[in-house]
Amino acid sequence: MPPRLPRDSPTPEHRLPIWVRYVLPVLTLLLAVVAGYSYHLNDGHSLATKDIFLNNILSADNGARVRRVLSRTPLIDGHNDLPYLLRIELQNKIYDRKVLAALRAGVLSHTDISLMRKGQMGGQFWSVYVGCPASESVGIDDATWAVRDTLEQIDVTKRFVASFPETFQLCTEAACIRRVFRHGKIASMIGIEGGHQVGNSLANIRQMYDLGARYITTTHNCDNAFGTAASTVAAGGDDIGATEFGKEHVHEMNRLGMLIDLSHVSHQTMRDILAMSTAPIMFSHSSSFAKHPHLRNVPDDILQLLVQNRGIIMVTFVPFFLTSTPSEASIHDVVEHILHIVSITGWDHVGLGSDFDGIDIVPQGLENVSKYPALLELLLENGASEEQIAKLAGENLIRVWEEAESVSRKMRNVLPGEGTWEGRTWERTDVGMPFLLEENKGKRIQGIGGAP
Ligand SMILES: [Zn+2]
């Protein structure tokens, strides 16, 4: 029994705050109406309407949760090929008013500024991609235009970024991403897609670093002086993994603090480089081999090595790597790949690497860069927490880059590598030129070149 109140004391109601007396009953009534409505629908009258009704409540809630996460964590994509489209379609000419207007809002492809804003993006690694030589008869040391075209890709990417200073800022260190994000801009980083693009040269890796590039994919779809490509194995070739010179390339990348990207390399090259690298590595755009056995994807045992390496796999949206029926690929396939990878690695080693603008078909539900929030919402619906989707969206990538920078700082007294690929041919020299050292006299390869 409740104790009896003295006559002169206020009734309990008078002691309750206003919100309990008036707001709470109204809220209770509203909840009762909602519960009654969903019960009514649940009664079998209209299941479809019920699903839509409940999904709307759910997605409105998850939409707000995603917006909250992305207001604190920059969403960073590991691989976008817009610079490639600028080259093959516009020959790198971007200053035309019509072009700039389209890049702001209205391209037919996957990436423009208004779509990026709708996608709540906070950072993008722009891929400065130049393809492997068209013919397999072109050897590793044969002259190509790959380095020239890569320099031009870097140039057009920087000019694109500089054309929209209110939107983009170039970042060459991890801390820059959060700084730029706080100012409401999208951090822009540069990644190079293959060792052939740096002429298989440690010196050129350093020069590309100085130009602002911050990752290099070890190989694209051709073997090079550093290692074996996945495409070689897919075509029936041997998987010889990383080369001896590939080890020197790993050491130089670690020394510079440049991220090693293992998308596109063979599985043995992945294993070899994961065993060698003292810095965390990245897969800028790869998915799970267990979910879909395409050689571009990463098998579970290598995902375990990735955890030991503290690296990141940025899950790609390329339909051919998601499912055996690419034309039917959807956002749900990407969710499944992410959840499988997470079941092996936990949430500290995943990210997003769409390959937008580098693919001819897209998964349903992930048509362009505006769709990242939909993907994060689906992950919440599948039981992920806000902290977990924040890691996937950007926290992991920033952590990986910071750790690579820290390895570089520890190596600051190490001299730049001077190694060259064993198959490198050197310029023939003019007969009459003087020698630097006594012991080299007579040892230069004599040729017919003129004096400098
Ligand atoms: Zn690629």
Describe what this molecule looks like in 3D:
- By secondary structure, this protein is an alpha/beta fold.
- It folds into 2 domains: 23-72, no CATH class; 73-134 and 141-410, Metal-dependent hydrolases (TIM Barrel, Alpha-Beta Barrel).
- The chain has helices spanning 12-15, 18-45, 47-72, 82-90, 97-104, 113-118, 146-163, 174-182, 202-210, 230-234, 244-256, 267-276, 300-309, 319-322, 331-345, 372-381, 386-410; strands spanning 75-80, 121-128, 168-170, 186-192, 213-217, 259-261, 282-286, 312-315, 350-352.
- Strands 1, 2, 3, 4, 5 and 6 form a 6-stranded parallel β-sheet that branches.
- α12 runs parallel beside α13.
- It is globular.
- Bound molecules: zinc ion.
- Zinc ion binds at residues 193, 264, 285.
- Zinc ion is lined by residues 193, 264, 285.
